[in-house]
Write a structure and sequence with these properties.
With 268 residues, the chain is an all-alpha fold. It has ten helices and no strands.
Length: 268
């Protein structure tokens, strides 16, 4: 009797094993189908897309950097071409110098557009239209400004700005230091510089101009480092427009302060 029971058990084991394997096979097949439908990399990418750029996957980081620096290159190119037209065309210079209100219009216009761009930076394609409008107005503002300077000084400021930006960018991207802690100090210095610049309206001198221009150039060197670190460690991959605008404004402000510094230095 025991032998018959044991034989029955032995005979029942293969069937039970097969029944146990069947759910596992079905689960494995379902998992493979799900992986084919939703690849593991896409799931990881969706998770990383909401985090900062540094913690995202490699191809998301590279795509983000390509977008940021492609937009930045177009912005700088448009500004450079517009400035060259205003700098070398005497007819354009005469038109602009006779209408100083154009500088105020373009300046306040770019300020209004950047506020709108900040609000709609995630709405495509509205954000791209606003980005183009802001870049065009900012390029006009810079072009009108450089039309009042000598060509040699403008070229010197352009070369210095390009060299400083490339050097600081390379340094920041390979550095392991945390530059985000300098943000509060940089913004405090920026407000001090803005309020102190009103002193030039009442106590203007070449020495004061030289000091403020040098301080402004150093300050925006710090902002280039800070914003380059910010785009990797604080911004998410969908914030490429904001990252490009931050760097573009840093470049423009560094260029304008170097322009003022070289002009004041040559006059002394």
């Amino acid at each position: 009797m025991r032998s018959m029971r044991s034989a029955a058990r032995r005979g029942a084991l293969p069937g039970a094993a097969q029944r146990g394997r069947a759910p596992r096979k079905r689960r494995r097949a379902a998992a493979m189908a799900a992986e084919q439908r939703y690849p593991r990399s896409s799931i990881e990418d969706d998770f990383n897309y909401g985090s900062n750029v540094a913690s995202a996957s490699v191809h998301i980081r590279m795509a983000f950097l390509r977008k940021v620096y492609s937009i930045l290159s177009v912005q700088v190119l448009l500004t450079t071409v517009t400035s060259a037209i205003f700098l070398y065309s005497t007819g354009v210079q005469a038109f602009v110098h006779e209408r100083p209100a154009l500088l105020l219009i373009s300046g306040f216009g770019s300020l209004a557009v950047i506020v709108a761009l900040t609000l709609y930076r995630h709405q495509h394609p509205v954000n791209l239209y606003l980005l183009f409008g802001f870049t065009l107005l900012e390029a006009l503002t810079v072009a009108i400004t450089v039309s009042f300077y000598d060509v040699a000084i403008v070229l010197q400021a352009f070369i210095l700005t390009t060299s400083v930006f490339l050097g600081l960018t390379a340094y920041t991207l390979q550095s392991k230091r945390d530059f985000s802690k300098f943000g509060a100090g940089l913004f405090a210095c920026l407000w001090i510089l803005i309020f102190s610049s009103f002193l030039r309206l009442f106590f203007y001198s070449e020495t004061i101009e030289l000091v403020f221009a040098a301080a402004g150039a150093l300050l925006f060197c710090g902002f280039i480092i800070y914003d380059t670190h910010l785009l990797m460690h604080k911004l998410s991959p969908e914030e490429y427009i904001l990252a490009a605008i931050n760097l573009y404004l840093d470049i423009i402000n560094l260029f304008l302060h170097l322009l003022r510094f070289l002009e004041a230095f040559n006059k002394k």
